[in-house]
Amino acid sequence: MANEPKHPTDPGQQPESVPGQDSEYLTTAQGAPVSDTDHSLKAGERGPTLLQDHHLREKIMHFDHERIPERVVHARGAGAHGLFTSYGNAEELTRADFLKPGRTTRVFVRFSTVVGSRGSMDTARDTRGFATKFYTEEGIFDLVGNNIPVFFIQDGIKFPDLVHAAKPHPDTEIPQAQSAHDTFWDFVSLHTPAQAHVMWQMSDRAIPRSLRMMEGFGVHTFRMVNEAGKASLVKFHWKPRLGVHSLAWEESQLAAGADPDFHRRDLAEAIDAGAYPEWELGVQIFPDDGSGVFEGIDLLDPTKFVPEELAPVQPLGKMVLDRNPENYFAQTEQVAFHPGHLVPGIDISDDPLLQARLFSYLDTQLTRLGGPNFAQIPINSPDSPVNDMFRDGFHQHRVPKGIAPYKPNSLDGGCPYMAQVVSGQQPPLDFPQPVASGKKMRSEPASFSDHYSQARLFYISLSAVERAHVQQAYSFELGKCTDTAIRQRQVECLAKIDTQLAAGVAQALGLPAPAAVQLDDPVASPALSQIGKAWPVDGRKVGVVFNSGNHQHVPAIAQALAERGMSPLLVSASGGEVAPDLPIDRTYLTARSIEFDALVLIGPLPPAPDAAVALDAKAGALGAGGVPIDPRVALLVAEAYRHNKAIITLDGLSDGLLQAVGLEDDAPGIALVELSAVAESAEQLLSTHRAWERFPVAE
User: Fold this and answer.
1) Which residue, of 31, 83, 349, 625, is most buried by count of CB atoms within 10 Å of its CB?
2) What are phi and psi of 621, to 5 degrees?
3) Is residue 611's pLDDT more than 50?
4) Is the peptide bond before 583 cis (omega within 30 degrees of 0)?
5) b/e map of 523-538 (b: 16 or more CB within 10 Å)?
């Protein structure tokens, strides 16, 4: 009939609407069918990823440009400037100039959360980015890592799937900066390579006490090459001088409301106070024998880590962050990292996730920073000379000289010359690695199919209290899922990791416990536990709580704490000064327990004002003469106690405060001391981070 609409594919006929998401099978953006979106195209099963993989490039390219202008992931960040000093012990390992004896290199570090938007809170349960830009004499080297040594996926082609699942639901745009929702757990319970990373994320590692107390990992296996051309495989580690410490779960939730800038504030204040954060850079070293396997662990699988007991970390240098950014946008926001920013002596491996990152990180800058000249932004500009022969493009600030931006040329005298390669040595950047033979394919090695053993290794290496926290985290996160099938499927995954863990989570969710599975018991790695060691207390914040009528001891206490490297914060009912140039930092109204690593209480504390009593008539904290203590102080002390924090009182001046809030003077982590012993006691109690024995957990 003449009035019937033509088929959309008829020549010259445009469809009434753009077709989208309506095919029964997966296609490219151009409508071509896709048979595999889990594996990138490689030169042989264990070979490098091929540039001709049009599906990988299209999928990653679109993902890279989904957010304008903030980062798609790692949008929420904090940064600092510093210096890296080489120990000079890496010459047998690499020819990299910045690791040679006597070298000090300028650095900029950006810490970040992964899932949340730029305006989200710092203390969400999330993986943290730990990216370091080295401004070496041979160009920029970017070490772009995380605070967890394994990742969710094994192949970069799955990265858009992972992030789409972890981000807020597309219909409601909630929840923000959280993994406690259906789409995340739907993905990870089906894509079981994610189980190892999720185990770390459900541990205390995902809620660090401070960015200064966070370990960093390069995640992937890299290659180092020395002057003689000998290659070794390595994994990078950042070890914080202050140790690895975490928030209690309740603290992280309180901080999200009371101080969503908790981590970036802590970092900036520590640097301003001269408590400069320090890390050692080290590497685990493995033979580059062509197998890509060490002690049965596949080094090309980014969901695997190598226990330090099998391959100790060799320290190569120390990094100190000593200067805050002058402008957040110009530096922390505009800094651009890329795993392909390498220097001679450091090269990549065939890890399929790393291979995809080499395309993705470069591609995403085109949208986020407005074009190909992002290296000219000052924070990204190398300290070494540049002559790249590139021309024009958005935001071109250089004024190139010469008329021949091509090679070979005679009009500009043949310049620039090629970097000289000394006879018998390797080229400056590219290691002549043998390429896997065989046909191009979308596949993975059989060793990539083990998705549970390392999650079990991590879990059994934790202390009892840390394992309890893991169980609570799974119970909370899955409890936020509305789909029972997703909960059950993830619990069944846990049964393949640890029977008791699965049973405990199932009980909390009201689900039947899965059938017991016979599991191997790997040798535990004590290095994975955060508990049981003693650490320096530099920059730890100690709340000194007193009232305006009883502050004669405060200056001496503050001075003694500062002399031992701690940061005293004075807390009283109202503001002002207790002595010239010694201001009160917080009032009972503005202080909250999350800000302090320990409390020093100087009694007698003031009674509650009538209004405060009316607000909290059931506070139950009675001071001298049965007068109610200000409930804000009672809450401060009770929370610190509940979170296993050190509480120190002055002998003769405690005024029954601890008993008034239901605490005993002899509980673990509580000290009743003379004035002269306050700072020593605080240092001793804080060295282990918390009084974990206060609430013992059965093994």
Assistant:
1) 349
2) -95, 110
3) no
4) no
5) ebbeebbbbeeebbbb
Q: Say if residues 196 and 451 touch (Cβ distance below 8 Å).
A: yes
Are 103 and 85 spatial neighbours (Cβ–Cβ below 8 Å)?
A: yes
| 180 in Cβ contact with 249 (< 8 Å) | no
Give the ranges where 259-335 is alpha helix by DSSP (H).
Answer: 262-272
pLDDT of residue 654: 59
Helices (H) and strands (E) in the chain, counts: 16, 22
> Which residues contact residue 229 at a Cβ distance below 8 angstroms, ignoring those fewer than 6 apart?
424, 425, 426
Reply yes or no on whether 74 is catalytic: yes
CA distances (Å), origin 442, targets 53, 187, 286: 10, 21, 27
Q: Give Cα 466 distance to the centre of its chain.
A: 18
Let me know if 643 is a catalytic residue: no
Q: Is 71 annotated as a binding residue?
A: yes
Tokens linked to 448: 């990539």
Domains recognised in the chain with CATH numbers: 52-372 (2.40.180.10), 452-528 (1.20.1370.20), 541-694 (3.40.50.880)
- Please identify which of the residues 39, 55, 146, 547 carries the catalytic annotation: 146
CA 133 to chain centre: 16
Q: What is the pLDDT of residues 260-313, one digit of tens each?
A: 999 999 999 999 999 999 999 999 999 999 999 999 999 999 999 999 999 999
Length of the chain in terms of residues written: 699
Distance, first Cα to last Cα, the chain: 80
Note the pLDDT tens digit of each residue in 23-82: 777 888 777 788 899 999 999 888 999 988 988 988 898 888 887 688 999 999 999 999
**pTM recorded for the entire structure:** 0.91
The annotation status of 694 as a binding-site residue, yes or no, is no
pLDDT tens track for 548-582? 777 888 999 999 999 999 999 999 988 999 989 99
The answer to whether 570 and 544 have CB atoms below 8 angstroms apart is yes
pLDDT digits (tens, 9 = 90+) for 464-502: 999 999 999 999 999 999 999 999 999 999 999 999 999
pLDDT of the residue at 310: 98
What is the DSSP secondary-structure string of 123-171?
TSS--EEEEEEEEETTEEEEEEEESSSS-S-SSGGGHHHHHHHHSPPTT
* 264 labeled binding residue: no
- Model confidence at 617, pLDDT cuts 50, 70, 90, reads very low
Is 57 known as a binding-site position? no
- Look up residue 475 and give its two tokens: 């119970």
Asked whether the predicted pLDDT for residue 10 surpasses 60, the reply is no
577 near 587, Cβ under 8 Å? no
Which entry of 39, 55, 74, 341 is annotated as an active-site residue?
74
3-state secondary structure of 297: strand
**In terms of DSSP H, where are the helices of 496-592?**
499-509, 554-563
The verdict on whether residue 487 carries a ligand-binding annotation is no
**Is position 357 annotated in a ligand binding site?**
yes
Nearest C-alpha neighbor of 161 from the set 11, 295, 338, 34 = 34
CB-based burial of residue 416 (10 Å sphere; 0-12 exposed, 13-18 middle, 19+ buried)? middle
pLDDT band at 639 (very low <50, low <70, confident <90, very high): very high
Return d(Cα 351, Cα 631) in angstroms, integer.
56
CA distance 270 to 632: 26
